[in-house]
Amino acid sequence: MVPTELLADVRTLWDYHDLRHEPRRCDVGVGLGSHDLGVATRTAELYHEGWFPRIVFTGANAPTTVERFPRGEAVHFREHALELGVPDSAITVETAATNTGENIDLTRALLAEQGLLHASVTLISRPYQQRRALATAQQRWPEAEFRCAATEQSLADYVESIGDPDRVITMLVGDTQRITRYAELGFAVPQPVPAEVHEAYLRLVDAGYTGRLIPS
């Protein structure tokens, strides 16, 4: 589990990134590829609940996913959704994206070909990726309307499901840095960062969780 002395700071970052959007009927659900197969599970659940009639799974591989998903994230996500009863006719895969910006850009281009440039979209991601995904999508696909969704579980349950607390903390720290850094680079819409979030981030960096930081 998360070390006790770090728990408050980790929870602060967790709560910051979890946007807790209420579901809304959309044109399409976009499952963002990652190491977390729970994204595909949640996408299938929302499809079966009737929140969108079609799905795009997007993602090639990153260094953290190539061993788990050797045929690509989107391909494995599609196969998992099929196992959960989503019809193949409802799923499109985008297999070239290697980061969140490309997830958005390539999905936008794919849906524009289908007349859905101005779509309403539910972005399904890891719980702690929601804020960054939304900020990226609003910058790179301004014609669309977005909601965010993720597996609904506590920090403790999520860490248990991943089985690697250090990995979760490292990813949380990396995503927190990217909120500010990507806005500075023009990759994403700026987001408010409360002082308590910034301070928690700095303490976790000082504690050594720097493996997902990008150079300043």
UniProtKB/TrEMBL annotation:
Stretches assigned to the DUF218 domain: 39-140
Gene3D superfamilies: HUPs
Protein name: YdcF family protein
PANTHER family: DUF218 DOMAIN-CONTAINING PROTEIN, INNER MEMBRANE PROTEIN, PROBABLE PERMEASE
Superkingdom, natural source: Bacteria
Pfam families: DUF218
Cited CDD domains: YdcF-like (cd06259)
InterPro entries from the UniProt entry: Cell_Envelope_Assoc, DUF218, Rossmann-like_a/b/a_fold
